Fold this protein.
Amino acid sequence: MKKVKIGRAVCTIAVVLISLYLLQKLLMPKYVTDVIEGALIAEYYEEEKDHDVIFIGDCEVYENFSPNVLWDEYGINSYIRGSAQQLIWQSYYLLEDTLRYEKPEVVVFNVLAMKYNEPQKEAYNRMTLEGMKWSMSKVKSIQASMTKEEHFLDYVFPILRYHSRWSELTADDLKYMFRTKKVSHNGYYMRVDVKPAENVPGGKVLADYQFGDNAYDYLDKITQLCKENDIQLILIKAPSLYPYWYDEWEQQMEDYAEENNLMYINFLKLIEETGLDFSTDTYDGGLHLNLSGAEKITRYFGQVLKEEVGLSDRRDEQELVLRWQEKQKFYEQDRDEQLEALQNNQ
Amino acid sequence: MKKINMKKANVIVVTGMILAMLTGCGQSENVISGEVNNSTNLSQKEENAGQSQNQNQNENQSQNQNQNQESKAENAASESYKGYAFISKDVVIEMDAEAAPIIEALGEPLSYFEAASCAFEGLDKIYTYSGFEINTYPGKDKDYISSVILKDDSVTTVEGVAIGDSREKLEQVYGTECTVEENLMIYEKDDMKLRFIVKDGVIEAIEYVSNVL
C-alpha cells in the first residue's frame, strides 16, 4: 500500500515537472524569424570544434567578418562567438566556455565593449546568456551581467520570466520547440541590402573618456586567459562609423596593446586599404557592414592572419574541406535568397 | 472521502501552479520583446523653472537674450512640463513626449540620422537643428524623445544657462542640490535628468536625458 502511494507521488511529480519543462520549451523565444541574433550563441555547440580563430564581441564582430571568406581564400577555420551588445565580461566567460571545447590559435576581441563598465539591458543579457550551455562560466557570466531588476533564478528557470508569452505564441514556437534552424554562417549574420552612410553624427562631449575599471579588469582577464593557453590575442576595432569611437578611447587601446604586447588593428583607420566604401558596403547607414563590406575587411584581415600571425592554410584537410563545402552552399543560398527578396521588393 | 478530497486538493494546487505560471504575476516583459516602457506619467507640476528665472535676470547677458529668456522662463513658469523642458521656437520639448508633433513643429532639421538598435526592431533617430540635437527612441507605434543635446552657445536652457557659462552661474540658476560625479552635475526631476558637463569651472555640454532608457 505504501509502495503504491510512493509510486503515485513520484508519477504526479514527474507529470508536473515534464509539463513545466514542455511549457518552458514552448514559451521561450526561438529567435528564428525575428531577432535571430538571439540564436547565435547556442549555434556554436552544434559545430565541430577545431577552429584556428575565435572572434568574441558584439555586433561589430558578428556582422562585420565572414568566416566563409577566411576559409575560402586563406584556408583558415574560424568561428564568431558574438551576440548583440555583448559586454566584456560576457566575452570573457564565453571565451572560458569556448576553451572547454577547443583551443584556437588566435582569439580576436572587438574593443567597442570597453565603453560599458556595468550591466546594461536584460534583453541583451538574455540573448547572450540563454544560449550558453550550463557551466560555471555561465553562472559567473549571469552574476556579472544581471541588472538590479533581474534574478538569477529566472535564468535557471526561464519559464519564470517568459510565463506570460503565451499570448504572443506563434506557429514557430511550436515548430522550433525542440530544434531550431541554423541562422548564421559560423556566427556571421549576413545582410546583403545597402543603405549608404549619410549624416553620421560625431561624438557628443563626454564627462569622462577613461574606460572603467571593471572593463579593464575583464580585458586583463581575457589577456591573461589567452596567455595561459598560449593563444595569440588580437584586439580590433571594427570599421563601424556609429557609435562614435573617440580619439581618447583609441589612445587607451593603443597604449594597452603596447603594454601587453598585443596586436591591435583599428579598421576605421584602414578604410582605404580595405577598400571599404560606405555608400555601398553598409546596410544600415554605417553601423554595420553588409556582405560586400564584411567580405572586404575579412579579406584584409585574412592576409594579416596569414602573413603576420602565420596561420597555415588547411585546405588540404579533406574532412574540413567537405565540412566547408556544405557551409559554402548554405552561404550562397542565403545570399541568393536575400538578393532575390530584395529584387522582389523593388 | 478524505482521500478523494486530498486528490482534488492536489489537482487544484497543481492546476493553479501551472495557471499562475502561464498568466503570471511577474514583471513586464516589454524589454524582452525589444519594446521600451514609455513611462510618460505626465507630470507632476514643478515650479523650479520659475524660481530660477529671477536669478537669470541678474546675469549680464545681452538685452535680446534676456528678453528671449524671460519670455521662455515665463512660459516655463506658467506652463507645467515634465521635468526640465527645452524650448526652441516656442516648441516645448519634454523628455518622453511623442516626437512626431515636436519634429513637425520645429520644421526640417539640418540633418537626420537613424540607427537601428542591434537585434531589435525600431530605430533610434537623431534630428540635428541649429545649436541642438534631438534623439528619439521607438515605442510600440510611435517615437518618443530620449534626449536633447545642446551643441553650442547659440541656444540656452529655458532657465538661461548655455555652454560656456560658469559653474557659479549654473549653481545660481539651478541650485546646488544635484548629483555630482567627477565632471558631471545632474539635476533630476520627474523621471528625467538635466546633465551639465563642467570642466575647469566652465560648462562644456548640456543634455536633457530621459530616465526611461
Notes: Chain B touches chain A at residues 10, 14, 17-18, 21-24, 26-27, 29, 31-34, 111-116, 118-121, 126, 128, 133, 149, 181-184, 195, 197, 204-205, 207 (CB under 8 Å). Chain B has five helices and ten strands. Chain B has one domain: 48-210.
